[in-house]
Amino acid sequence: MHNPTFLKCDGADTVVIFIHGLFGSPNQFVELADAVYNMGCTCKCVLLPGHGGGMSEFAKSGVADWQQHLQNEIDKIKLDHKKIFLVGHSMGGLLALNSSMLKENNISGVFLIATPLKVHIVDPKSILRKRQLLQLPRDNEIKSAYMKLNSVKMPKRFVYLPPVRTIREFYKLMKQTEKRLPEVFVPVHMIHSRSDETTSYKSATLFYKGLRNTQRATFSLDKSWHAFYYGDEQEVVRDKLLEFIQQD
């Protein structure tokens, strides 16, 4: 099941909101949310509109719906917490950055995981890795992770491509966010894997250059996939996130 989660830490003045990406799920943040909660922060993992059901529901949603949903979650939580951190995976990071630009949200920081400003389309290594993923048996830990974290149920009889409108909106969101990066004034930390088969590692450089009016830092992983992280590199993501929240 793919459901939003809320871990309330009594007396906490800090809340961390986790935002998944296209086809993603709140489930991918279970370990990170537990670590943040154990550190003494309230945690919220959102489920974006159109996710958690079938392709027909997904096709009715879009960037505006997802951005507004995140805003609604921020509006509900900011009344009871002094500090709000946004953690976004992939497209969720783009939504987080755009929310951070609104001064009234008073966001304390944004943590990006595999967030794209450039995606792999014809890169040979990326194509090879995607083919490898398709050929892996269903019980392989990588293939299993991708299947479990995909919150949009695909039709069984054929491969259903995402609606053209959705893909168009996604690319537009990337371009618009890149242009607006100088408007970000909250601290941003970014973590990218050089082996990510979806998000180009060049995104890290583009983010660093664009976020010129705020404190920012980039961290690299070597072997993890876009939606699967090996144990040792998952620990790096966790540790960097906890450090980011604590240093504020």
Write structural notes for this entry:
- It is a single chain.
- The protein is α/β, with parallel strands linked by helices and 248 residues long.
- The chain has a single domain, classed as Rossmann fold, CATH 3.40.50.
- 41% of the residues lie in helices and 16% in strands.
- It is built from nine helices and seven strands.
- It has helices spanning 30-38, 55-59, 63-77, 91-100, 124-135, 141-149, 164-180, 202-210, 231-246; strands at 5-7, 14-19, 42-45, 83-89, 107-113, 188-193, 216-221.
- A seven-stranded mixed sheet has the order 1-3-2-4-5-6-7, with helices on both faces.
- Helix 8 (202-210) links the parallel strand 6 and strand 7.
- It is globular and about 50 Å long.
Task: List the topology elements.
Layout: E1 5-7, E2 14-19, H1 30-38, E3 42-45, H2 55-59, H3 63-77, E4 83-89, H4 91-100, E5 107-113, H5 124-135, H6 141-149, H7 164-180, E6 188-193, H8 202-210, E7 216-221, H9 231-246
Parallel strand pairs: 2-3, 2-4, 4-5, 5-6, 6-7
Antiparallel strand pairs: 1-3
Helix pairs in contact: 1-9, 3-4, 4-7
Which key phrases capture this entry?
248 residues, 7-stranded mixed beta sheet, single chain, Rossmann fold
